[in-house]
């Protein structure tokens, strides 16, 4: 039985780093977005979009200490 691939890096390996970031920052970021968006489903879509955009820009990212700020900046731009 094949396992479903979730998030892939350019080499095809599962990108567990994104899931670690999701687990660490999604609760706070989701709460932030929900406080600014009336519909819960819309807020969840925005949260997902933030992480997709973040993953697409990882090659530009240089400072791991600023991950949270960068995610929230993307989130603010989407609400």
Estimate what percentage of residues fall within beta strands: under 5%
**Mean of all residue-level pLDDT scores:** 82
Shape: globular
* Tally of strands: 0
C-alpha Rg (nearest Å): 13 Å
Residues in helices, as a percent range = 55-70%
Q: Kindly, what is the distance between the CA atoms of the first and last residues, rounded to a whole number of angstroms?
A: 40 Å
What is the H/E order?
Answer: HHH
- How many helices? 3
Structural class: mainly alpha
Short description:
With 79 residues, the chain is mainly alpha-helical. It is built from three helices and no strands.
Verbal overview:
The protein has 79 residues and is mainly alpha-helical. Helices cover 61% and strands 0% of the residues. It has helices at 16-34, 40-56, 67-78. Helix 1 (16-34) runs antiparallel to helix 2 (40-56), helix 1 (16-34) packs across helix 3 (67-78) and helix 2 (40-56) crosses helix 3. The termini are far apart. The relative contact order is 0.15. Residues 1-14 have low confidence and may be disordered.
């Amino acid at each position: 039985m094949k396992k479903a691939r979730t998030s892939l890096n350019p080499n095809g390996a599962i990108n567990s780093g994104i899931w670690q970031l999701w687990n660490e920052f999604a609760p706070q970021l989701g709460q932030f977005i929900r406080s600014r968006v009336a519909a819960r489903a819309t807020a969840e879509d925005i949260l997902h979009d933030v992480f997709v955009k973040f993953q697409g820009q990882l090659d530009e990212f240089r400072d791991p200490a600023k991950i949270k700020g960068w995610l929230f900046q993307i989130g603010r731009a989407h609400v």
